[in-house]
Each structure stands twice: as C-alpha cells, then as structure tokens.
Design a protein that fits this description.
Two copies of one chain form a homodimer. The first copy, chain A, has a single domain, classed as Farnesyl Diphosphate Synthase (Orthogonal Bundle), CATH 1.10.600. In chain A, 73% of the residues lie in helices and 1% in strands. Chain A is built from 15 helices and two strands.
C-alpha cells in the first residue's frame, strides 16, 4: 500500500491550523491590533511544513500527534516571526508574501516588529507548556545566532557581493535548515527517541532542510508570481546568493536530489514508522510552490 | 546594622556583568557583527535592576545568588532587546540611549532588529538551561502581548492622543511593571517559594514596577541629558502619555511613594530576608537617574 501523501498533509494541516487557532490569543483580545497582526501572518496560507515535520518526527518513534501539537505550533510561530521581520523595509523590503501584502504593509512597521517579537515569545510559552527544557534549549539554539538568525545575518551581509560556495552553504544551512532539523528532532525528542534515533533524525533533518532551500532557490528562478505568491526572480533582483546562480539550475537540482536520498538513507534504521518523513522528503523535492 | 545598599548593588552588578559576559557568545564568534551588536547594548551601562531583582527575589526565600544568575541574565537580555526594538526609527526613533548612540545608529536597522531577536532567543535558551518550565512560562507571558509587548503596543497607539488614566496605567503596568514583577517572582520560584510567599512577592513586584515607571516619567521631565543619558523631556516631545503630565509632578511623586509603601507592606510576612528587596524599593523611589 502506497502512502497517500496528499491525504496525510491535508489532515495534519487541519490539525495544525486548529491548534494554532486555539493557541493564538483571540483577535479581539486587547490590544486587538497586535493579535490581528499575529493572526494575519500565521493564517496567510503557509504549507505548515515545520509543524508537520514535528509531527512526523514524533510518529517516526511511535509518538502521538496530539501530544506534539503545541510544539508543532511553536515552530510555525517562529517561522512566521522570521518571515515578518525578514520582509521589513530594513531587511528584504518585500511588499508581498504568499500572494498577500506583507505584515508591515497592512499594520505598519512598528506593529509588524512587535508582532514578530510577540510570536517568538508566544512560541516559547507554548513550548514551556507542552515540551521539556531540552526541547526549549534545542529550539532556542536553532532560532538563535548559531542557527536561523546567524544565517539571516550572513545573508544580509552578502547581498550584492560575490560569495564563496561555503558562505552560500552557511546561509542555507543556518537560515533554513537549522529550524527544519529542529522541527524533526523536537517531535522525536518529545516522543522519547533514543539518542541514536535522535541523531539519525537530526541527520535527515539537516539534509531535508538544505534540500528545501535549494528547491526554494530554483523555484524563485522558475516560478511565477501566481504560483509562489511572491515576486519570482526576487532573489536575483536583490542580488541574493543562490544555488542555481552559483552552480547552475541542473546541478542544483541534482544536489537537492542527492540530499533527499541521503536523508532517506539516514532514516533507514527507523523502519516503516519513518514513512511520513520519507514522503515529506519527496514532497520537498517535487513541490512546485 | 543598616543595610548597605550601595555595596549590595555594586557586588550584585559585578556578579551579573560577569555572568552576562559568560553567557553571551564571544564578540568574535561568527557571524561577529551580531554578537558585537548584542554586546554593545547589553554592556551599555544599565543599572541591572531586573537581574538584581531576580537575585533579591531568590534571597528573600533563602535561595542562592549563583543558582539564579542565568535567569537574572535572561531578564536583562529581554529588557535589552525591548530597548533596542523600542529605539528603532519605526518605533520611538531614538538616537541616544544611556549616553551612547542607539544600536541601529551604530549597526544599522537590520542588524539592530536581529540583535533584539537574538537576545530574546538567547534569553529563553538560558532559562531552559537553568530554570524550570514554570519560569519559562512565566517569563514568556510577562514578555508577551498580555505583558510587556501589550504595553508597548498601547503606548505607540496612544502617542499624540489624549489618554484616560486607565490607559496610562495599562501602559505602565504592562510595558514596565510586568517584567519587573516577573523578575522578582522568577528568583523566588527558582528558590522554591511557597505559593503564598510567591503571591506576596508578585504583589510587591507589581507595585515596585509601577513606581519605577512613574519615577522614570518624573526624571524624564526633570532630568538633564547628562544625568539620564538620553534626551530629557523626550516623552513630551514624542507626546507620550506620562504620570506627571496627567496628574502633576507632586501627585505623581506621592503616588510612587504610596506604591513603594504598599510593596513593603506586601513583603512584611517574609521578614528580614526580604531586606534587599526593601532597600531596592527605596532605591527605585530615590534614584536620580
């Protein structure tokens, strides 16, 4: 029996969306504007890849979906905060995200900055309610200057400059892969993964994360505004360092493919329970938006 | 024997500064710019009031200084992140803080935004290493939209508008008092305070926090650039709602004094061990900068 990825994703997305709605303050709770702004970006039609990876990480070691939902939400809140801050005029200065005006275009820069700050704070509150101190530590590290923020710093500093391959890899592994790896590991940790299983899941997560960003780069070159919900070719306009620019589109696709295979190889010891992660790996490679 | 507040503060400040230096990434750790930016604002000569309140909260229930130092640092990192973001052009647009150019004037807006984000993430990492999930939850709530961020949102929304007394109190209790209360409570929680002791400490913290902000408002009217390290009268220029503007300077001073007395009354059941908190309460009222 083949794994029905579309059904799996749809069901998990529904569960994640319902949990996000429960865990975010109501839109009319005062001060309403900040809660509206947080919800505007959280419910902007994201793929929910990170929370679904948390769930798949738990399932891979026999954990329950229900138990990891708050942690899954926390990872999505951190991802969303990073997008809101990245889009600010002082950073990437983007007007559109997922086909809609960016947070600061709707709520103004001050509220957008604070909405990002609030999502990050709420994420740690959720982790404290539902996970362990180890998971809080793991997420703080992945989100910090040796993880996601570090990648964003080097990305900004590299704009418009020629970069070496290792700088490009640094940006991608830190800006994107660190949180994706952390999502998979967090789910497995909460489900009580043994150390060697956790290491395997982490290996797979690093490779999935880098593959995800390489595919993102390729889609940015190939995609249209309609498909991506943001302006295609925006990396090039902003003179961002990308894999296709550096290695060419074909070599980049082969690299992504190899990373997905490596991720699957790392998961081999987990057996059939890692089926959802394997299916997500294929999804990451084959997605069109 | 009277309590030597100056010696107490100097000793605690030294311990906090040394711990902050240990817990912040080295300034040359890549990407260096973000670690320099974080350190620039953390070591800008703050009073370390919040970390010292964490310590005093622990001491009030017989806890050790050493044990709560990482949590003390975390509260200072959160305070510092909030100052960096508050000073941004999109927010209060301040060029000076503690007598030095603000973070974004030195490092640029993008790095300043990321330095704030990084300090918040690091704070939760520190809490996870040293405190309990209850403390993480407490801090996340105090820093979030029903605490500090909520106060900042209403503060920004109220600029240049006539505000009611209850809005003014909302801003002050949320923007400032929530984190000060949380500092005292966190120290007491880690030291194993009984529920009724924790409630008393929280009561005292709320009052100390509000008194602190009222005194801050008064100093802003009275102070000079030299004493405060920021432009005096800046609240008025920005049409910020303040206590002296609303109630007059004399009534505001009496209100602060009454709050300090209330705080001390709340601490009565704790006996002599709450001596440092009482001394800090006097310091909050009598400080000149």
């Amino acid at each position: 029996m083949s794994f029905d990825l579309a059904a799996y994703l749809a069901e998990r997305r529904r569960a994640v969306d319902a949990a996000l709605d429960r865990h975010l303050p109501p839109p009319d709770a005062p001060p309403a504007i900040i809660h509206e702004a947080m919800r505007y970006s959280v419910f902007a039609g994201g793929k929910r890849l990170r929370p679904i990876l948390v769930i798949a990480g738990a399932e891979a070691v026999g954990g329950s979906v229900e138990r990891v939902l708050p942690t899954a939400c926390a990872l999505e809140l951190i991802h969303t905060y990073s997008l809101i801050h990245d889009d600010l005029p002082a950073m990437d200065d983007d007007d559109y995200r997922r086909g809609r005006p960016t947070n600061h275009k709707v709520f103004g820069e001050a509220i957008a900055i604070l909405a990002g700050d609030a999502l990050l704070s709420l994420a740690f509150g959720l982790l404290a309610e539902s996970a362990s101190l180890d998971v809080v530590k793991e997420v703080a590290a992945a989100a910090g200057t040796f993880g996601m923020i570090g990648g964003q710093v080097v990305d900004i500093q590299s704009e418009g400059k020629p970069v070496e391959a290792r700088t490009l890899e640094y940006i991608h592994t830190h800006k994107t892969a660190a949180l994706i790896r952390c999502a998979l590991r967090s789910g497995a940790m909460i489900a009580g993964a043994a150390p060697e299983t956790l290491a395997a899941v982490g290996e797979a997560g690093s490779r999935l994360g880098l593959a995800f960003q390489i595919v993102d780069d390729i889609l940015d070159v190939e995609g249209s505004l309609e498909e991506l919900g943001k302006t295609a070719g925006s990396d090039q306009r902003k003179k961002k360092a990308t894999y296709p620019e550096y290695f060419g589109r074909e070599a980049s696709r082969l690299k992504a493919k190899a990373l997905i295979e490596d991720a699957k190889a790392a998961l081999a010891p987990l057996g059939p329970r890692a089926g959802p992660i394997r299916a997500l790996a294929d999804f990451i490679l084959e997605r069109r938006s």
